[in-house]
Amino acid sequence: MGTIIGLLILAGVDTILKRKTGLHLHQWIAKKYRDSQHNK
Question: What are the residue ranges of helices labelled H in 1-40?
Answer without folding.
Answer: 2-21, 25-39
